Amino acid sequence: xxxxxxxxxxxxxxxxxxxxxxxxxxxxxxxxxxxxxxxxxxxxxxxxxxxxxxxxxxxxxxxxxxxxxxxxxxxxxxxxxxxxxxxxxxxxxxxxxxxxxxxxxxxxxxxxxxxxxxxxxxxxxxxxxxxxxxxxxxxxxxxxxxxxxxxxxxxxxxxxxxxxxxxxxxx
Length: 171
Ligand SMILES: CC(C)(COP(=O)(O)OP(=O)(O)OC[C@H]1O[C@@H](n2cnc3c(N)ncnc32)[C@H](O)[C@@H]1OP(=O)(O)O)[C@@H](O)C(=O)NCCC(=O)NCCS
Fold this sequence. Notes:
The chain has about 170 residues and is an alpha+beta fold. The chain has four helices and seven strands. A seven-stranded mixed beta sheet has the order 1-2-3-4-5-7-6, with helices on both faces. Helix 3 links the parallel strand 4 (about 75-85) and strand 5 (about 125-130). Helix 1 runs antiparallel to helix 2 (about 35-50). It is globular and about 50 Å long. The structure holds coenzyme A. Coenzyme A binds near residues 85, 92, 95, 96 and 97.
């Protein structure tokens, strides 16, 4: 076992999707277990299996420590779902969250290009996400350049989610 032994890759649909589902189930955050499982089993995992959604994951010594699920949402727009960092505490504050986000951002652009969703005249694409309002995750995304574009009770009555967007310049 290495001291660091960090790796990341696209989730291999035939081999790693069950590990991804277990990771997401274990890190559902403040969201209702029944609702979250229904979304996971009926929408998210079938989407990853069919290729409609693209999942990235990070591992340390074979244990999943982070994931990001991407979805093409329309012309020049992708959505980042379920960005989770659950790295061991000693690994926090070392740039892993920022690195993961950067890879997800690059991959989101590639996904849109592959799907023919980037128009010729576009000089940027938009990466959208929603997360619990006023949370440390929201503060992290704001620090990484996302701007708030709205708030809504998307999943749980009485619980506000913040909708955020990042403009990703095309190279
Ligand atoms: C918030 C979280 C994703 C940050 O990951 P991390 O690997 O510890 O953060 P990094 O080391 O990559 O931080 C990169 C930069 O973001 C800043 N940052 C980190 N967390 C922040 C926060 N909550 N608010 C504001 N800035 C933050 C860091 O200070 C650092 O700044 P620098 O580049 O100027 O040095 C992670 O610690 C965490 O809380 N994980 C558990 C919950 C979770 O997964 N939330 C995300 C999605 S819903």
